[in-house]
Amino acid sequence: MNAILTAPLGEQEHLKEFFEILNGQGRKQEFTEFSSLLSQLNQMEKQYAEVLSELQTVKGQLSAIQDKGIKAVVMNGVLTLQEKVTEAKNQLEHIKTDISNSIKESLSLIKENGISALNKAVDFIGLRKALTDLRDNLTSSIAQTQKHINKINAVGSEFHALKEQTGNLGRVLTGKETKELTQRNEDKGILAVATKQLKHSKSMLERIRQNVTHTITAVDRLEKAANKGNEKKPSVRAHLKEKSQKAPAPKSPVPQKKQEHSL
Questions:
Q1: Could you tell me which residues come within 8 angstroms of residue 81 by beta carbon, excluding any fewer than 6 positions away?
Q2: Is the preceding peptide bond at 234 cis, omega within 30 degrees of 0?
Q3: What per-residue string of b and e applies to 172-187 under the rule 16 or more CB within 10 Å gives b?
Q4: Which one, of 158, 211, 189, 182, lies nearest residue 51 by Cα?
Q5: Helix (H, G, I), strand (E, B) or coil at 253
Q6: 8 cis-preceded (ω within 30 degrees of 0)
Q7: N or C: which terminus of the chain has fewer CB atoms within 10 Å of its end residue's CB?
Q8: Distance CA 91, CA 84 (A)
Q9: DSSP conformation class of 12
Q10: What's the CA angle centered on 207, arms 60 and 219, to 5 degrees?
Q11: CA 59 to CA 53: how far, in whole Å?
C-alpha cells in the first residue's frame, strides 16, 4: 500500500485509515479500484510537472533566436501552451483535494455504517465530470501543441527561403551565379530543437489524456462496487410476508342443500 499511497495525497493519515477499513472489511475490489485511482492521479501530477519543465526548456532554447519577430511568434505560442497546461495541472490538484477532503469528512460515517457509506464519501458524479473536463482541456492542449509545431515549421521554412533568396539577390548584384533554392531541414537548427521538445510534450499530454480515460473507467467501477455494497438483502420475515401476499386466497366451501325427507 505504501507504494501506491505516494506523497502528497496518499501520505495523509485519514487516507491510510480509509484503506485499512477497506482491507479490514474484506472489500478487495474497492481497495484495488481506489488504489488504482490514487495511483493514476499521482502519476498524472508527475507527468504534468514534466511537461511544464520541458516547456520551460523550450523557452530557454527559443530565447537564443536573433530575429525578434520570429522569436516573438514562436515564444507567444509556447507561453499560451504553458498557461493551458498549468490550468490543467491546477484542475488535477483540485480533483485530488476534493477526494481527500470528502474522505476525511466521511470517514466517521464509514466507521459507523460500514463501507456501504462509500458512495457518500465520494461524489462520483462530480468526480466523473471533473475528469471529463480535464480530458477536454488536454484534448485542446494537444491540438494547440500540434498547431504551434506546424507554425514553428512554417516560420522556419519562410525564414529559410527568405535567407536563400536574399543570398541569391546578393549574387545577382555581384554578377555571380544564383544557387538553387532548397527546402529547410526541419531536423536542424534552434527551431528544430524546439519542435522536437514540443513533440515530446505532445506525446506526454496524450499519455496523460489516456490515463484520465482509464481513471474515469476506474471511477465507474468503483461506483458500481460501492452501490453493490449498498444493496440490502430482504429478511426471511419479509420474504415470507411477500410470499404469503402472492399466494391465492382459499376458496370458501359451497353450502350443501339439505335433503328433503318423504312424509
A1: 55, 141, 144, 145, 148, 198, 201
A2: no
A3: eeeeeeeeeeeebebe
A4: 211
A5: coil
A6: yes
A7: C
A8: 11
A9: S
A10: 130
A11: 10
What would the mean pLDDT of 224-229 be, rounded to a whole number? 70
Q: Which amino acid is at 142?
A: I
CA distance 61 to 168: 29
Asked if residue 110 lies in contact with residue 118, where contact means CB atoms within 8 angstroms, the answer is: yes
Give the helix ranges, DSSP H, for 174-235.
190-230
List, for residues 15-62, the tens digit of each pLDDT value: 888 888 778 777 788 788 888 888 888 889 999 999 999 889 888 888
128 close to 40: Cβ distance less than 8 angstroms:
no
d(CA 159, CA 150): 14
Helix, strand, coil percent content, the chain, rounded in steps of 5:
75, 0, 25
The pLDDT assigned to 132 comes to 94
Q: The pTM is what?
A: 0.69
**Could you give the maximum distance between any two Cα atoms of the chain, in Å?**
158
Determine the distance from the C-alpha atom of residue 208 to the mean position of all C-alpha atoms in its chain, rounded to a whole number: 7
CA dist 209 and 135 (Å) reads 6
Cα–Cα distances (Å) from 126 to 132, 224, 229, in that order, read 10, 15, 20
